[in-house]
Prior knowledge:
3 helices
Amino acid sequence: xxxxxxxxxxxxxxxxxxxxxxxxxxxxxxxxxxxxxxxxxxxxxxxxxxxxxxxxxxxxxxxxxxxxxxxxxxxxxxxxxxxxxxxxxxxxxxxxxxxxxxxxxxxxxxxxxxxxxxxxxxxxxxxxxx
Length: 130
């Protein structure tokens, strides 16, 4: 058996549920609290950049992420790594690829569409992982 830390409000609500609806309702409430804590441990964040041509859209890299609870130095390292990755290509991001297919389903006339990120305006992007 292990003791689960609960706040005063959570203890009151659990006691109320146990008294009015039975012990199973109190146990279900504590399990709900534990699931919420577990979900918060899997909350990640990363940084992205707005697109110059369309300021309502942004681009981010899901591989460059950090936990919500990480210290500021780790979060800034993530931002720095993403900025360096974009700066290598002049802020250009491949948005989509269009092509036509020949008779054997091979791509011909491949056209790549690029967007340019505004590296001066970073935005925070929240990622939830399952």
